[in-house]
Amino acid sequence: MCGIAGFVLREGVAEHAAVRLMCDQIRHRGPDDEGYYVDGPCALGIRRLSVIDLDTGHQPIANEDGTLSVVLNGEIYNYRELRQDLIARGHRFRTNSDTEVLVHLYEDAAEASIARLRGMFAFAIWDARRNELLLARDRFGKKPLYYALLPNGLWFGSELKCLHAARVSLDLDREALQLYLQLGYIPEPATPYRQVRKLTPGGWLAFPIRGDHREGCYWKLPASCGQAPPESEKQAALELRKLFDESVRLRMIADVPLGAFLSGGLDSASVVASMALQSSAPVKTFSIGFDEAGFNELPAAKLIAKKYKTEHHELIVRPDAVDLVPRIIRCFDEPFGDSSAIPTYIVSEFAAQHVKVVLTGDGGDELFCGYDSLFDADRARRFDRIPLVLRHALTAISDRLPYSTYGKNYLHMMGRADPMDRYFDLAYSQHAACEALLQKDWKRSGADGNFIHVPAGDQAGILSRVIQFQATTQLTGDMLVKVDRMSMAHSLEVRCPLLDHKLAEFAMRIPLAWNMKNGRGKQLLRSALAERLPAELLRLPKKGFAVPLAHWFRGSLRSFLRDHLTSRSFLNRGIVSEMILMRLLDEHDRKRRDHNHVLWMLLMLELWFREFATPSAPVSQYGIRRAAHV
């Protein structure tokens, strides 16, 4: 795992000091080594975390005649297979690194070669013959890649810090921040800044010095049930277990110590079980818990640790963990409202004391129908039977009710014309509060507030659309951002077996009825792997990786929260109604309603403004390093 950065100029000569400064900002992503390529208009840089080929894997890596140079963040899991094929076709290798296969694949097929890769990656290849830079990102967007396409060149980096250091003019994108206030994160390809985009997962961008840039997509997640399903549930379970074990095996390839995050849920427990069955040494496992019983999964984690005799490590997280919040803000570089970043940061710091690589169970809920909100969307389909004119009447009635009226939000959800809007109301609890709280200029425009484009699904309708949203926009914008930033803050590489693209393509072929049974999701995954897991663990209800924020906001974190959200600094930004905000704080304090999601989201936004924007300027005029434009 590494961090990469660089730029290509339309005119002029690149400076070594400039790319080095960009890479200095992401030293945490690669503390083991650094490397640079600077020639003519192009500069590439890397900070390397050495995991594979410790001795000869120094980057950038060139092809045989030096006309191609590459920097890679990530891992190519099928590099040995690709290497053998390339050698048979006459290519010569100087290293044992997975990175070197990229330049040789490019020699043969340019951007068309990306589809042959199996892994998590973001890379840049400079082609000195064509005077062209190629950027590419893995299928799910596990590895980040930001870029600024400007009249005088292109700048890129693994984190926004790199572009700050390059003194790219960064003016805030109000629409992106509006999306944050709806979702709690900024979805692809938007960023907080108008000049900067995120490279689309499964996509590539080619930037020539002369002429227009080109963009393409080499992979998209298939539609749910979009292909012929397996012949039977039993056959599907056998095939799923085979693909799952293969995916785990590939991600255990490393020249450094590795372990696993173990939350106590089905997904991480299954990964640990597969690792243990394929390893001759005890698996190192890492778990964290809370004093609050409803959030503590340590007993469940111990079940699997005991069964497979893992080298188990655990830690209790207490409210003083909120001291980490300013550090967490700096890790993200953009507003990020998922409070599970706190335990992810802590467990990453904990694991990094023992290993360099961990495997996780991320992706199981998205691919195998694990979220309760999917069932909520399914149950809400009954409202489609209500005549549209009556639904409009319900919405009108809801809009006229006072904010504090119980049932107002449910009535509004019932009246939604688009089932996807109903899903957002049900899945994102901050929606109703934001509708009342936000000032007019900070609300998303649109008749129904359908702020995310979700392509129409197949015959499964709303469920297919929700699965697509969860497995693309939500997964990439929330879960994978959280895991990448929190782990790389501690120079820890995280691998996600459940997000292998071959396994994901198979998951999309599974009929929904095989996954969704008796009010529970992931039933086929459970069937495929149940015999490996303790029966007691399989009976436990789903908890998720959450923190007891509601409790903390009434206790140790109460003053911190109020000091920021009731400050003139925040209120003068003109984002929220002061009266409604005070009401939300009071309702939460008195336990009348739980507003922890929206309060945390607003707190993260204010801390981000203070860290990355000029505090004295009106929101509409914010600009980072406005004095120096590139």
Molecular structure report:
Mean pLDDT is 89; it is low at 446-451 and 615-630. 40% of the residues lie in helices and 16% in strands. The two termini are 29 Å apart. It is globular and about 70 Å long. The protein has a six-stranded antiparallel β-sheet. It is of the alpha+beta class and 630 residues long. It folds into four domains: 2-217, Aminohydrolase, N-terminal nucleophile (Ntn) domain (Glutamine Phosphoribosylpyrophosphate, subunit 1, domain 1); 233-370 and 500-539, HUPs (Rossmann fold); 372-463, no CATH class; 549-621, no CATH class.
Q: Over all CA atoms, what is the radius of gyration?
A: 24 Å
Low-confidence stretches: 446-451, 615-630
Count of beta strands: 19
- What is the CATH level 1 assignment of the largest domain? Alpha Beta
Our measurement of the CA-to-CA distance between the termini, rounded to an integer number of angstroms, reads 29 Å
Number of spatially distinct domains: 4
Question: Structural class of the helices, strands and pairings?
Answer: alpha+beta
Shape: globular
CATH architecture type of the largest domain: 4-Layer Sandwich
Largest sheet strand order: 2-3-1-9-8-11
Q: Count of DSSP helices?
A: 26
Percentage of residues in strands = 15-25%
Under CATH, the topology of the largest domain can be stated as Glutamine Phosphoribosylpyrophosphate, subunit 1, domain 1
Major pleated sheet: 6 strands, antiparallel
